[in-house]
Amino acid sequence: MSREDYDEYFVKGIIQVLFVELPKFKKQEAELFNKMDKWFYFLKNVEHLTSVPEVLEQEAPIKEAFELLNEDFLTEDESKTYLERKEFLINNVGFQEEVREEARIETNLATAQKLLAAGIDQTVILQATGLSIAQLENINATQTVN
């Protein structure tokens, strides 16, 4: 960055911070009319791009960023670390979904148990909780034993 660029953006205090949820950015190439949309498109799709789309070619910084990403500038260790981190994040998302599903089932089992104890019809309980007949029968068997 040149001294003039630095002065223009930092010394004058012209800094803008944006928080963007890239998965919610749905614009296609034909809809990119300003620099911000072009950057968002680039950031969202960079992993899948094999070349710079024509609509982004006119933005020199985007073109330069694409070229840098394609230069394999990561060392072997950095690349390995990056891939391991990416795999961890993907696996972690799956793990979180499993935990949520288990918690949902446990909540439904507890609710069904209370509804059964209150004498609510089993058909209503099945519809309300989404449990299977086998799960409900298991709760019945457990309550009968206790």
Which terms would index this structure?
single chain, 146 residues, mainly alpha, 2 domains, 7 helices, 0% strand, elongated
Structure description:
- This protein is mainly α and 146 residues long.
- The chain folds into 2 domains: 3-69, no CATH class; 76-145, no CATH class.
- It is 66% helix and 0% strand.
- It is built from 7 helices and no strands.
- The chain has helices spanning 3-11, 35-45, 54-57, 60-69, 76-117, 122-129, 133-145.
- The protein is elongated.
- The mean pLDDT is 81.
Structure summary:
This protein is mainly α.
Topology:
Layout: H1 3-11, H2 35-45, H3 54-57, H4 60-69, H5 76-117, H6 122-129, H7 133-145
Helix pairs in contact: 5-6, 5-7
Question: Which geometry do the CA atoms define?
Answer: elongated
Order of helices and strands: HHHHHHH
> How many β-strands, per DSSP?
0
Radius of gyration: 27 Å
Query: What count of structural domains?
Result: 2
Which runs of at least 5 residues are low in confidence (pLDDT < 50)?
none
Alpha-beta content class: mainly alpha
Strand content: under 5%
**Tally of separate helices:** 7
